[in-house]
Amino acid sequence: MKVTMANDSTPSRNRKDKGVFFEAPYSFSDQVYERLKEKILLGEIDPGERLMQNQVAESLSASRTPVREAFRRLEKDGLVERVPQGGVRVTRIDPDTIQDVFGIRKVLEAYAVELACDRITGEEISTLKRLMSQARETLKSPELDLEAKLKKLFELNSQFHDTIYRASGNAFLLGIINNLRNIVRRMRYLGLRADSTWDQVWDEHSRLIECLERKDRESAAGLIQEHLVNAASYVEAELKSKGTRASEENPGSAPEVFQNGAG
Questions:
Q1: DSSP class of residue 261?
Q2: Within this chain, do residues 198 and 136 fall inside the same structural domain, yes or no?
Q3: I need a surface site. Which of 4, 42, 117, 127 has the fewest CB within 10 A?
Q4: CB 12 within 8 A of CB 27
Q5: pTM of the shown model
Q6: Cα–Cα dist 212/163, whole Å
Q7: Which residues of the chain fall short of a pLDDT of 70?
Q8: Are residues 235 and 184 in the same domain?
Q9: HEC readout, 143-193
């Protein structure tokens, strides 16, 4: 998403005019927020990296107000934290956090697939199979480079899990899972960076579809828990190999994504 200047830094609001519903365009603050959020979730801004308000604002030829609002929203999401020296720092992911998050996911997603076994529709099964087919094609594609494959598989993986969550038919469960969305997406992308795991991930997805078609609650719950144990190990391995070490004393320069504008 290309970030461009807007005249109003106040977050946009939807409005009704003469009975017609209009969706106002993104404000500049919204665009900065979405841009930063995407870069953090995809690991393009490293855990521990400092973001300085004046540097981000200057690189975008903007005032500090929309950047400050974007920082505030990212902090609320748990993606950044304030630092005493000024600015914000992307929150780190450590082994304890990984185990805590995946421990919660094992409980929630086992329940979700049990419900989905009873409630999933033929259309939703078809959606899962379509996503599976697209993932297989992506894995075999000689035209995509590593980063392009990563992003495509990440989106397909997220859509796969989201389809199962919706198939559970439990709005309260969906709300709880949604609260974990940002941290889950960060870890999901981190785990997918190890290309040796891709085939195994989608083989497990294929087996899960079979369980859902058979309405085999016990096997589906066991499989999703096994899947998440494996996923946690991929994240831990990638985190260890990445060896991210961000300086807490030197703010450094703005991340490369902002060096030449926000395009």
A1: B
A2: yes
A3: 4
A4: yes
A5: 0.75
A6: 12
A7: 1-26, 194-195, 243-263
A8: yes
A9: CCCHHHHHHHHHHHHHHHHHHHHHHCCCHHHHHHHHHCHHHHHHHHHHHHC
